[in-house]
Design brief:
Number of helices: 1
Helix content: 25-40%
Strand content: under 5%
Number of strands: 0
Order of helices and strands: H
Largest sheet: none
Length: about 25
């Protein structure tokens, strides 16, 4: 899953959603 809501510049597109959650 590619989550890039708050980090639109970084465009976090990692398989580990945990990383995205940590960013949020």
């Amino acid at each position: 899953m590619c989550f890039f809501r708050l980090s639109t510049e970084l465009l976090l597109c990692n398989y580990d959603s945990s990383i995205v959650i940590a960013v949020q």
